[in-house]
Amino acid sequence: DLFPEGLAVDAEKRLFYMSSMHRKKIVKITTSGQVSDFVAEGLYGLNPVGGIRIDPRNHDVWAASDPGETSASELLHFDAQGKLLERYSAPGAGSRDLNDLVLREREVYTTDSSANLVYRFDRKPHEFTSLRFPRRIFLPNGITLSGDRNLLYVADMLGVIVVDLRTGAAQDLVPDAHDTLAGIDGLYWYKGDLIGVQYGTAAYRVMRWSLAKDRPTVMASEVLERGTELVNDPTTGAIFQGHFYFMANTGIANLENDKIVDVSKLEPVHIAVVALK
């Protein structure tokens, strides 16, 4: 009954980290399948934990949490041993729900699915700043950086927006003529392409979109996984040694207001693997 949401990998340590919405904790998983608590349930009074990323420079773990009944959605920073170093409430009044995040050298970029915003969190002054987009964004979710870390890709229910972090200029990524970029959850960069877990289509699918080198356009789309019995409510994943690992059956639709709807539907969480060329 973890009901996981986020998955990340520390490539150097060969460890995966999985966040839990229901148990409000983070577990770590070895490549041989051994599972242990990284941040135990009840420790630090965490809310449901969503997006999670690893800082490869020091192996620190950053995560985003949902709001609680009486507590705010937060950006969380743990050291490599699971000690909470920092926690920052989402900015502003009203409903806030930090969802996914990505790390840059001096910044953290995170989506807010309730306020329909994307923030840059500056690590030195500890300040959130909202990014500007050419259109209104709706339920922003997956987020990733290009290989040179100059372009930020943000997925929402309508598509994907590309932000040039050097200039602040932003524009929609144009899909190919026979495909859509709507409704992407986890979003990742791989060898000049985007990998995504997509729910905005008739069936959940894992996709690879090949990008043009000179303009924000998808040149080709490839379905990596779609509609198999193994896959049920996938959310996010992680790329490790040329393979995409993703949570195939989070069961998140069986959790409402932190209550399990049907206990009989609980099953072990499976991590599926797709080879990337």
From TrEMBL:
<protein>
    <recommendedName>
        <fullName>Gluconolactonase</fullName>
    </recommendedName>
</protein>
<dbReference type="InterPro" id="IPR015943">
    <property type="entry name" value="WD40/YVTN_repeat-like_dom_sf"/>
</dbReference>
